[in-house]
Each structure stands twice: as structure tokens, then as C-alpha cells.
Fold this sequence. Notes:
Layout: H1 6-32, E1 36-40, E2 43-47, H2 49-57, E3 67-70, E4 73-76, H3 79-84, H4 86-99, H5 103-116, H6 126-140
Parallel strand pairs: 2-4
Antiparallel strand pairs: 1-2, 3-4
Helix pairs in contact: 1-2, 4-6
This protein binds zinc ion.
Zinc ion is lined by residues 88, 92, 128, 131.
Amino acid sequence: xxxxxxxxxxxxxxxxxxxxxxxxxxxxxxxxxxxxxxxxxxxxxxxxxxxxxxxxxxxxxxxxxxxxxxxxxxxxxxxxxxxxxxxxxxxxxxxxxxxxxxxxxxxxxxxxxxxxxxxxxxxxxxxxxxxxxxxxxxxxxxxxx
Length: 145
Ligand SMILES: [Zn+2]
């Protein structure tokens, strides 16, 4: 990951802040119901408890998911799920930093745009395609053995 200035980081946290703040209560909910949270490489990672069960049981329109990013917060079923999806979710964090608190709307519009072309709103969403490709590149760089 590229090193960036403290000021740029502050601006990006503020730019994405409204979305991240909305998800902060999930950290306490997870902690109080048997899960946990920590800060990993500048992102608040939350896992398990009611929050993890909620992801595992399925989100509206998506079904069960391992993890998802909302601003500088990534929520996962378990620490292992967060680990295995980190590159994918960090790509979404970078997308949030690009678009700020507009990103949920931009993401939705991109999904509607591809659906208009007869493609799948989630799988063919350009922001999902970018995240999957980043994860593929990361996997291909892991040395064998
Ligand atoms: Zn994704």
C-alpha cells in the first residue's frame, strides 16, 4: 500500500466519515453479542456476534456474504472471513475514498446501469468487478508452498 500524508488521510476519513459513523454502533453490537472489533491498517474491522450472524443469514438482495465495507468500516462473519476477503473489501474502501459519502449512491447507480443492459446488478457491477480483480491479482502474487 502506498504511504500517504497525514493530511490526506484526515481529509479522506472526513470525506467518507458520514458513512463510517453510521456503522460504528455495529462494533458495540458485535462486541456485546460475542463478536469483536479492531483497527486493521486504518480500517475498523467488526466481526461475529449478532452482526456476523446477520451477514451469514443473508442481506436483502445479496444473500449470505462473508464481509462488506461501509466507508472505513468492514464488517465480517468472523476474523477468518475478514482475513480472506481483505483485499476485496479494501478495494471497496478505496472506492469509498474516491467517491466519499456519495459512493453508496454511485454503487447503486452503477448496478442499475448494468442491469439496464441485461447484466447482473451485483456480479457485473463495475465496482464489484474491480474488487474481484484486485483479489485475484493478490492471490496470484502469493508464492506457492
Ligand atoms: Zn464486493
